[in-house]
Amino acid sequence: MILIGLGANLPSKRFGPPKQTLQAALDALENRSVRLVKLSRWYRSAAVPASDQPDYVNGVAAVETGLSPEDLLGLLHHIELEFGRQRTVTNAAREIDLDLLAYGDLIRRDASPILPHPRLAERAFVLRPICDIDPLWRHPQLDKSAQDLAAVLDDTLVRRCAEPDC
């Protein structure tokens, strides 16, 4: 299973609130050889590390594609740029953030992209949505399920979006 993390905490001039921007990004992916298989619920979470930024809207998509990990990551970065992402400082607020979280069972530590995402197992705002898709999904490197990884994290700052809160 290929997993893509989606997040945003600033409105887009073009697409509106973060959730609408992320939905538009999914449409853009589907128009470019990436088929959406399953989408998690949407979640709101505090910025990591803690800051005075607005809360993020986060989700995870399971997708299928014939693109290589490198080409898929390149496409994600291209869509971010197309949607107005400007990379300034690390952990800055953003209109869109697309991360390649996992590409099947592939483990890569010495090449880009690093797979699975190096901080996937530390992020409740990623693991909770993965549990929506498949709680038994196993982290290829740690050989632990998403639900087991999520169970040891403090997820009190991650909550399901309720309309129109999202």
Explain the overall architecture.
The chain is an alpha+beta fold and 166 residues long. It has one domain: 7,8-Dihydro-6-hydroxymethylpterin-pyrophosphokinase HPPK (Alpha-Beta Plaits, 2-Layer Sandwich), CATH 3.30.70.560. It has helices spanning 18-30, 69-82, 124-133, 146-151, and strands at residues 2-8, 34-39, 43-45, 56-65, 97-103, 158-160. Strands 1, 2, 3, 4, 5 and 6 form a six-stranded antiparallel β-sheet that branches. The chain is globular. The chain starts with a strand and ends in a 6-residue tail after the last strand. The relative contact order is 0.22.
Going by helix content, strand content and strand pairing, the class is alpha+beta
Q: Which consecutive residue ranges, at least 5 long each, have pLDDT under 50? A: none
Q: In percent, how much strand structure appears in the residues?
A: 15-25%
How many distinct helices? Answer: 4
User: Which term fits the overall shape?
Assistant: globular
Cα gyration radius (Å):
15 Å
Q: Find the CATH topology.
A: Alpha-Beta Plaits
Query: What's the number of domains?
Result: 1
Q: From N to C, what is the helix and strand string?
A: EHEEEHEHHE
Q: What's the total count of β strands?
A: 6
CATH class: Alpha Beta
CATH architecture annotation name: 2-Layer Sandwich
Indicate the mean pLDDT. Answer: 93
State the end-to-end distance: 27 Å
Major sheet characteristics: 6 strands, antiparallel
CATH superfamily: 7,8-Dihydro-6-hydroxymethylpterin-pyrophosphokinase HPPK
Indicate the percent of residues in helices. 25-40%
